[in-house]
Predict the structure.
Amino acid sequence: MRIRRKKAVIVQTHQVTTVHLTRQPIYAWCERCSAKVLMLTPEEAAALAQCTARAIYRRVEAGELHCFETDYGALRVCVNSLGGPTPGSSPFSEYGQDSQS
């Protein structure tokens, strides 16, 4: 009698997303976070969340994301509301870029 052996191969992957801001970072007060946080354009938020800008707009309309409109009508999204390690913490906090004085 022949013994058959099965082998299992487990592959783990790790992905890092880097978003390079082409403009000066905008830090503003987020009412819902009660903190001064990095505010992103919908396109930057989409790149960070790995989704489309339209998905970001949908989440804004549903009230899922913290945001505000500038005096010129441009939408800015709170980076903390995109999700991260813990609620209220920025994915950038480990790099010392969470807030500015």
Q: What stands out?
A: Helices lie at 42-49, 53-61. Strands lie at 26-30, 35-40, 67-69, 75-78. The chain has a mean pLDDT of 80.
